[in-house]
Task: inverse folding
């Protein structure tokens, strides 16, 4: 009972502190690799326990694009198994980096398009992907900020997280007569949303040492473990986040 009371007191105190923030807050979610559930655990904790005001600008890169999408449209990101159910939809799905990344893309895009089919309004969100100009034979980051509808946004998340020859059989993902690759291949920090009141979320932000096996393999159990690590690490470092936001 005491622990719950302290949790509520902390949330109320945090809300009072954050009411001092008048400007918008930028949340930039960077590349994740197969550590995506860890970054999602960070995002889930922030969404649940640090009540930032509604004036938020989101940006996502690579696996971070999926995290930013979920942050934008989900009210509750505290339950890993529930998130797995509406993204992967299969308790027995086992992801191997070298063999079935295309299945991950197919599942998450299909399932989220179904889940968000009634969404009409797109919030302030941008997706950063690597664009391949086949005429100039040049790679560069492109920031997409305008989306025709929710499916368009989800498709660009797929572009931003497309790993050449691993997410599919080709080097690039073709969409809207353009060619895209993983947004983390070319890094241009100038494309992030803002230079003040910003929070960059990435898998190394808390100094976590990961099991190297998680680089190439994931299933529901390992995903849950990574999610809880991200959640717990962020809880331990919540004062750092509050310090950034209060600035």
Result:
């Amino acid at each position: 009972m005491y622990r719950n009371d302290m949790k509520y007191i902390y949330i109320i105190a945090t809300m009072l502190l954050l009411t001092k923030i008048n400007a918008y807050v930028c949340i930039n979610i960077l590349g994740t690799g197969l550590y995506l559930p860890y970054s999602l655990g960070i995002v889930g904790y922030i969404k649940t326990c640090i009540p930032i005001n509604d004036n938020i600008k989101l940006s996502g890169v690579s696996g971070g694009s999926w995290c930013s999408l979920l942050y934008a449209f989900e009210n509750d990101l505290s339950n890993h198994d529930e998130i797995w159910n509406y993204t992967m939809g299969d308790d027995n799905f086992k992801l191997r980096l070298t063999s079935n990344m295309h299945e991950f893309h197919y599942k998450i895009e299909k399932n989220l398009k179904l889940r968000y089919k009634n969404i009409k309004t797109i919030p302030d969100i941008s997706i950063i992907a690597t664009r391949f100009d086949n005429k100039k034979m040049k790679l560069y980051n492109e920031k997409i900020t305008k989306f025709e509808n929710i499916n368009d946004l989800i498709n660009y998340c797929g572009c931003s997280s497309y790993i050449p020859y691993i997410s599919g059989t080709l080097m690039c993902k073709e969409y809207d007569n353009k060619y895209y690759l993983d947004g983390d291949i070319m890094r241009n920090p100038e494309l992030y949303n803002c230079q003040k009141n910003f929070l960059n979320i990435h898998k190394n932000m808390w100094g976590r040492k990961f099991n190297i096996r998680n680089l190439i393999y994931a299933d529901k159990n390992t995903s849950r473990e990574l999610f809880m690590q991200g959640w717990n690490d962020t809880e331990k470092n919540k004062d750092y986040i509050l310090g950034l936001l209060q600035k």
